Amino acid sequence: MTRGRIELGDVTPHNIKQLKRLNQVVFPVSYNDKFYKDVLEAGELAKLAYYNDIVVGAVCCRIDNSENSRKLYIMTLGCLAPYRRLGIGTKMVEHVLNFVGKDGNFDTIFLHVQINNESAIQFYRKFGFEVVETKQHYYKRIEPADAHVLQKTLRIPVPKEIVTNGEADKKGSS
Ligand SMILES: CC(C)(COP(=O)(O)OP(=O)(O)OC[C@H]1O[C@@H](n2cnc3c(N)ncnc32)[C@H](O)[C@@H]1OP(=O)(O)O)[C@@H](O)C(=O)NCCC(=O)NCCS
To answer: For residue 167, what pLDDT is reported?
Structure first.
């Protein structure tokens, strides 16, 4: 089979119902109105994926500024089952990696996956993500309830002392 055309497009009030439908079909977890309200404001952090002009996937992220670091959190990234292994997930991850690359100010990208989601774990490993933590009872209404945290490190945080010493050196040499 020849591969079709994969494109990403904005999420707008006009097509947000397609995103809701897609997420309902692809994920075992449901997302509330606040999620979709925020997605409409997310700009490049939320995209629909089209395969030959049909919506078949979507990615939704948000910026997380907790714990003194700036992280990109992938809330959802999914593709309809019949359209998997065609490069659609790759196109969405590449978009996210491009976004953080251009911004240049993120420490990590992370997400949660159900511990039995082998395909997603394999998929993210390909892009340099690693399991950094496993959270028990992370999900409330699905089994297994445990989640792995998958993370890709973009830059190693510099310990405060080194920054301080660097400043001292600069002053000393001027
Ligand atoms: C994970 C997911 C997004 C991958 O999307 P996709 O469009 O199939 O991914 P791609 O076609 O770009 O795959 C890229 C590579 O990832 C790896 N990969 C993807 N699915 C895989 C699977 N089921 N088993 C093993 N490796 C897999 C392969 O190396 C693949 O390259 P290849 O097809 O040339 O071998 C898709 O399976 C999905 O939507 N799953 C349900 C939603 C979900 O769990 N999302 C993750 C949590 S946000």
So the answer is: 55
Tell me the pairing of strands 108-114 and 71-79.
Answer: parallel
Q: Is residue 112 among the annotated active site residues? A: yes
Q: How far is CA 63 from the centre of its chain?
A: 10
Question: Which one is the CATH code of 6-153: 3.40.630.30, 1.20.1540.10, 3.30.70.240, 3.40.50.300?
Answer: 3.40.630.30
Mean pLDDT for the stretch of residues 35-51: 98
- 36 flagged as catalytic: no
* Nearest protein CA to atom 28 of ligand 1, as residue: 123
Q: Is the pLDDT of residue 172 over 50?
A: no
Pocket of ligand 1 (CB under 6 A): 26, 74, 76-79, 84-90, 111, 113, 117, 119-120, 122-123, 126
State phi, psi for 165 to the nearest 5 degrees.
-60, -40
CA of 119 to the centre of ligand 1 (A): 6
CA of 92 to the centre of ligand 1 (A): 11
What are the tens digits of pLDDT across the range 111-160?
Answer: 999 999 999 999 999 999 999 999 999 999 999 999 999 999 998 766 66
Within a 10 A sphere around the Cβ of 151, how many other Cβ atoms?
Answer: 19
Provide the whole-model pTM.
0.92
